[in-house]
Amino acid sequence: MGRITTNSKIAKDGGGKELADQKDLDAFVTQVTRPGDFDDFWERVLAGLVEVPLEPLVAPETMRSNANVDVSRVYYRSLDGIEISGWYCVPTQGEGPFPAVIHYPGYKGEPGMRRDWGRKEVVSLTVAVRGKLGSNDDFNPGYPGLLTHGIEGRDTYGYKGVISDCVRGIDFLLSRPEVDPQRIFACGSSQGGGLTLITAALRPEIKGGVAGYPFLCCYPESMQMLRSYPYDELTCYARANPDRVEEMLETLRYYDAVNFAPRIKCPMVVGVALEDEVCPPGTSYAAYQALTGHKELWLFPDSGHGNAHEYPAKETAWLEQQISKSQTGGSND
To answer: What CATH class has 2-327?
Structure first.
């Protein structure tokens, strides 16, 4: 079941031409296909992660804490034993175990702490995936750099580790007595939106998610439709390595959020900016279309990548609604 909301009139360019509308989105067809061994590959990755000791560590940050929330820097182990860090905020008021929201980061920016959830009696974990500050001692390809790091093969690709770091964030939450394991939700924008979709597909413990302007969707089309980073990293790589384009595209089939989307069983929102100059609207819509469970589509016609003014409040309100349903025993399906 799906629901579509549009926040204003359809956007137009300087010449009065519509940049994107529902017909444009419906007309978009991706050439991305799902490898036959897609599920087997990711089940092997997940099985390998189980063998890595989590070694969770919580380091209180008293100077960043306040009357409503205790803030900590946390650490845990992920793929290849790499230590991953994150910001962890726990309510000081109320009676746990508490629901939790896990936040996944964008491509270039550094993740911040979300103390605002503490005032709502919700735990928050913001994951600094490998390459981010606090998680870059052993892996630091740079930005640009990450999108093509190890892209020669599915087992060497850098995003195998990044996705693993997101998966292990769920394991960290499950290790904490103050977290209700039945009420974990996820969100993120841009790369974080793509990672929200991917992690929700791999971890059924996630009971709902919001994916804003999702990156990591429809790589072949995204390379061709825009000349902007990060996708232009792939275009530059292809230009410099014409003999490796086929293997690059084969690797990316295993890391395309569109191929993960059918696995998602929890309610999911996809936010699309119709003037998005980084993640083409049609590619985000393709991920929405591939969802098979309860889903909502938020269209932001007068907005570019990451700048829809209404988005942050809508994200918070939707997550609060899902958390409230879970608390009262209502269905999130």
So the answer is: alpha beta
